[in-house]
Prior knowledge:
Layout lengths: L11 H16 L11 H8 L3 H13 L3 E3 L6 E3 L1 H31 L2 E7 L4 E7 L20 H9 L3 H9 L5 H15 L2 E4 L4 E10 L2 E11 L10 H16 L10
Antiparallel strand pairs: 1-2, 3-4, 3-7, 5-6, 6-7
Helix pairs in contact: 2-3, 4-8, 5-7
Amino acid sequence: xxxxxxxxxxxxxxxxxxAVSRTAQILGLFDPETPELSVAETTRRLGLxxxxxxxxxxxxxxxxxxxxxEDSALVRxxxxxxxxxxxxxxxxxxxxxxxxxxxxxxxxxxxxxxxSLWGTSGPVVSLVEESDHPTLVTVRVGSxxxxxxxxxxxxxxxxxxxxxxxxxxxxxxxxxxxxxxxxIEAIRQAGMSSYVNHRGICVVxxxxxxxxxxxxxIAAVGTERMLPEALxxxxxxxxxxxxxxxxxxxxxxxxxxxx
Length: 259
């Protein structure tokens, strides 16, 4: 006889941890040989009772982690899981493809270039290609960039979930919030961002798109004497061209600038 796990009284924190653990266990059952699951199969493999599995299936379907297979009692990974998987594959791909573009760009414009990926609450510096210019301006890999950075504003301008972008900018104090949102709208129209900070460091940033939307930004970083702020400068145009080529290779579409 199969022994099933029996739910015991637990604190709210323990219940939360148990729910996350069981959700992960259910998702871990899917593989190329098991693209779909039934309640009976899940019950047997995890040793849970059918009522518990039914409850988890219902909750995971509601949250998009699972979806029902048409005309059957089976379930399969849902849209949320597919989107997450696509996102992670896109991040791996951009990390493999971007270095060649960044090296070529840095050699052309004599400026360091920086690739940033979107983290939990903003851009994170993921790759840096330093230039051979006598004056070296660089950024440390792993740095979390502020929401008012050029790279963050480019992400916020093109994130598919604009409600999330509005929530993030809503956390900024006034008048920074209003100014950031104004700049984001300008970036959405121009397709790029440029900014000179109080230390005289200029950052020109442009988006890279995959099939699912924006997947990264590439920025040129230098002193304002090395790097013009104007978006029609030679350096900015070279950055834009590199990001457009990389976008095409990633299977994305560069948005047309609006007036």
